[in-house]
Amino acid sequence: MAGAAAAVIELLPHMEQVLGEDHPDTLTARSNLVRWRGMAGDAAGAATAFTELLPHMKQVLGQDHPLTLTARHSLAFWRGEAGDSAGAAAAVVELLRDLVRVLGPDHPLTLTARSNLARWQGEAGNVAEAAAAFVELLSDLVRVLGQDHPLTLTARRSLASARGQLGDATGAAAAFAELLPCMERVQGEDHPDTLAARYNLARWRGEAGDAAGAAAAFTKLLPHMKRVLGQDHPDILIVRNNLAFWRRTAGGEFRTSSNDPS
């Protein structure tokens, strides 16, 4: 990603000189550069940059051009990533009307926007509304993209988490238990989303009353995460803290093995 961004930074002045600032390829390059800025960790900077880029795209390409619609979606996304969940949700609600009208309800960008809207609704505190949106979205995702598409798997994971947040820890654990084999098969055991699903399965098992099962699951997860992410990754500390908590909660139910990974 860093190499690609550096290449675009070097290329962009030549594109502006040869193609012009208003050429779709130039605008696409600028949009990609901003997106990489966000992916590198500067979500607020990416949101600001898309705010500055979007009026130019509207003026040159028009309100309904796919690049303009994509930039609007990116602006909402990075606003949410920067911490403005309510603002991101409001922006996507407005955007979705145009996406459905221009691209159609089954277009991948429309479905992605619906998924992000549900996510931002949940993060803004409207968890029940988010769960209902994910339930409605999932049927469309399965129909259009299939059971194994990453967006479908993400929606299933988000719905399972929402169930837990709404107080149904048993249902959340069951949903993650059903989802995990699919994620391992499709994305692989080392994929960050698969590891996150294993973490959530262990967590909700504990919240549902199975402290020993949660401790056992975290015990198995910890060495896997160390191998994939490295000893110093921040998530390692989170898993170790959860492991210690559920061991204490389980008390005499859980016996530490002789090859304890912690």
Which short descriptors sum up this protein?
262 residues, mainly alpha, Serine Threonine Protein Phosphatase 5, Tetratricopeptide repeat, 12 helices, 79% helix, globular
Could you walk me through the main structural features you see in this protein, from its secondary elements to its overall organization?
- The protein is mainly alpha-helical.
- It has a domain at 167-262: Serine Threonine Protein Phosphatase 5, Tetratricopeptide repeat (Alpha Horseshoe).
- It is 79% helix and 0% strand.
- 35% of the residues are buried.
- The model is unreliable at 255-262 (pLDDT under 50).
Task: Classify the helix fraction into a percent range.
Answer: over 70%
Number of helices, counting only DSSP H or I runs of 4 residues or more: 12
The CATH superfamily of the domain at 167-262 is identified as Tetratricopeptide repeat domain
CATH class of the domain at 167-262: Mainly Alpha
Order of helices and strands: HHHHHHHHHHHH
Rg result: 21 Å
Sheet/helix structural class: mainly alpha
pLDDT averaged residue by residue: 91
Distance between the termini: 33 Å
CATH architecture of the domain at 167-262: Alpha Horseshoe
Shape, principal axes of CA atoms: globular
User: Beta-strand level of the residues, as a percent range?
Assistant: under 5%
Largest sheet: none
Stretches with pLDDT under 50, minimum 5 residues? 255-262
Look up the CATH topology of the domain at 167-262.
Answer: Serine Threonine Protein Phosphatase 5, Tetratricopeptide repeat
Number of strands: 0
